[in-house]
Amino acid sequence: MESDEEIRRVPEVGLELAGGPSTSGRAATGAAAAGTSSSAAAQAAIARRRVRSPADKEHRRLKRLLRNRVSAQQARERKKAYLSELEVKVKDLEKRNSELEERLSTLQNENQMLRQVHLSHCTCFLAV
Fold first, then answer.
1. Digits of tens for pLDDT over the chain (128 positions)?
2. Cβ–Cβ under 8 Å, residues 7 and 67
3. CA distance 3 to 7
4. pTM of the predicted structure, to 2 decimals
5. Of 65, 27, 64, nearest to 48 (Cα)?
6. Coiled-coil region(s) at which residues (predicted)?
7. Which pLDDT score, from 0 to 100, does residue 50 have?
């Protein structure tokens, strides 16, 4: 099992971006609005797309794997906490059920005794 620190650690990968820094796309949009043809706007949109180097792709993949690993660990922890909660609830309900069964038994015995007392009194009055 890996520690939390190892799980969250992102391996350092050299990031070299092809084509220099990324532009925001406002310039291409502004050119399209200034009256250039739709094909020029489409070409500008394609040019705006950032070409990812293999190192950048690998870095993004590793970050995604790391996020996935952390998310899976958190899900396992939530599940473990939920199961612990359920186990406590089961114990409480079993205890409550046991108490109710004991009370039911006591009340049934009491009811039976009262019926016998009642029958004995009724037979006494009938005999008189």
1. 566 666 666 666 554 444 444 444 444 445 444 555 677 777 766 666 667 898 999 999 999 999 999 999 999 999 999 999 999 999 999 999 999 999 999 999 999 999 999 988 887 666 55
2. no
3. 6
4. 0.49
5. 27
6. 76-117
7. 67
**How far apart are alpha carbons 25 and 60 in whole angstroms?**
22
- The DSSP annotation for 34-72 comes to TT--HHHHHHHHHHHSPPPPHHHHHHHHHHHHHHHHHHH
The set of residues, in sequence order, having a beta carbon less than 8 Å from that of 9 and lying 6+ positions away, is: 66
Extents of the domains making up the chain? 4-17+52-127
How many CB atoms are located within 10 Å of the residue 29 CB? 14
Q: Which whole-number Å values give the CA distances from 98 to 20, 90, 101, 104, 107, in the listed order?
A: 74, 12, 5, 10, 14
Query: Tokens for 9?
Result: 């650690």
